[in-house]
Every structure is written in C-alpha cells, then in structure tokens.
Amino acid sequence: MSSECFSRQTLRDLLNQWASGEITDEQFAGMSEELWNKYGVWQSWPREDKRSITFGALAKMRLRDTPPITKDDVKFLLGFLDAAYGEESTAWRGFDEHFSQRAAASS
User: Fold this and answer.
1) 70-79, pLDDT tens digit by residue?
2) Nearest to residue 69, comparing CAs of 22, 1, 24, 15?
C-alpha cells in the first residue's frame, strides 16, 4: 500500500478530465482545492521524498499561483506525476525550470 494519502493517478485523472473538457475550469479548481484542503494543507515533504511529487503537482493544480496553470501545462504535469521513485530531484529541477520560464514569459 502506498504511503501517500491519495494516488498520483487521482491527479492524472483530474488533469485529463479537465484537458478533455469533461469538467469545467470551475469544477477542476473546486476539486483540486477540495483535495488540497483534505490532504495538502499540512504536507511539506522534502523534495527527495516520493510524496513531494504528488503534493507539488496538487499545489500547482489549485489555480492560485500567479500565473495559474493552463491546459497547456497538463502534459508537463502528467510527466511530472510520472517521475519514477528515486528520480524526484530530477523531476523537481524540470518543474522549477518549466514554471520559471512560464512566469518570465507572462511578465
């Protein structure tokens, strides 16, 4: 059994539903926020911990960041969630680079 409170697959499913138009932006935001309130608000895992990938993705999915994620970020986040256990540091470097470039492009 996984030591995560919910699986990475939960987030993959939510991202795919949003990207395909199966759920609206408002539903996506609400579901992400609900997961965060239930599981994420107290989580602060070191980036080397396998759980950090799940909670890092969920933090971005809350749409509260500036700039918020868009459907263009779904492919990247799905790849981030696919990071192999033991490769968390590498995944986080890509995460930081991706969202730094987005922030720079939007300013």
Assistant:
1) 999 999 999 9
2) 15
Integer CA distances (angstroms), 79 to 11, 19, 107, in order: 12, 14, 25
Q: Is 24 helix (H, G, I), strand (E, B) or coil?
A: coil
Helix ranges, 24-69 (H): 25-35, 51-61
For the whole model, what pTM was predicted?
0.88
The predicted-structure confidence for 52-105, as pLDDT tens digits, reads as follows: 999 999 999 987 776 789 999 999 999 999 999 999 999 999 999 999 998 888
Please state, as a whole number, how many other Cβ atoms lie within 10 Å of the Cβ of residue 24. 11
Cα Rg, the chain, nearest whole Å: 13
Instruction: For residue 67, give the DSSP letter.
Output: S
